[in-house]
Design a protein that fits this description.
The protein is of the alpha+beta class. It folds into two domains: 96 residues, no CATH class; 72 residues, no CATH class. 17% of the residues lie in helices and 33% in strands.
């Protein structure tokens, strides 16, 4: 890892402010500084082989509940570790609810979509009587004609790395890093 700063490819690809690697306090052999350098890489924290060991160590430490490492002389801060096991496809938002099996998550479309006219009944007893894959079916005027519209519901996707930490590095912005 001592050769991390000597790797010209890393120097070209990383948009790390110079003060992160210069100065008497920030050294490349300091684990916290290595982590900051790797997290600053726009290509991802483990794009370069030299970054994998310190970043994988970071994931293990955070998973055990340990705090984020420090790097003296560098302006950065990190959030507490978070956990988001699910995510939705584009055009859907994640909605949580408590059901018979505890907390449940679903993805609900962010805009109304056309559905079968059979789902939009003027009979109040049958309103919202759907298969559980739609929310709020209703008649809506679209391009001059009435259409049955509803919000679609889908199952959320499961993240392979559900834990995250938000890291703010002065001069480089905020990055959400999943582990």
């Amino acid at each position: 890892m001592k050769n991390l700063l000597l790797n010209p490819l890393l120097a070209v690809c990383c948009t790390v402010p110079l003060y992160l690697i210069s100065g008497s306090h920030a050294r490349a052999d300091d684990w916290g500084c290595e982590v900051i350098l790797c997290l600053s890489n726009p290509g991802g924290p483990t794009e370069f082989a030299q970054c994998r060991p310190p970043v994988e160590r970071l994931w293990r430490e955070l998973a055990k509940g340990h705090s984020f490492p420090t790097c003296s002389g560098v302006g950065f801060k990190s959030s507490r570790p978070g956990y988001e096991p699910y995510f939705c496809d584009a055009g859907y938002k994640l909605v949580g609810d408590y059901g018979p099996r505890g907390q449940q998550a679903t993805c609900v479309s962010q805009s109304l979509q056309e559905v079968s006219e059979a789902l939009c009944s003027f009979d109040r007893d049958r309103r919202n009587n759907s298969s559980g894959s739609l929310v709020s079916p209703r008649w809506k005027k679209v391009n001059g004609s009435m259409r049955c519209m509803a919000y679609r519901i889908t199952r959320p996707n499961t993240r392979s790395q559900p834990h995250y930490v938000d890291v703010t590095i002065d001069g480089s912005g905020t990055h959400r890093v999943w582990y």
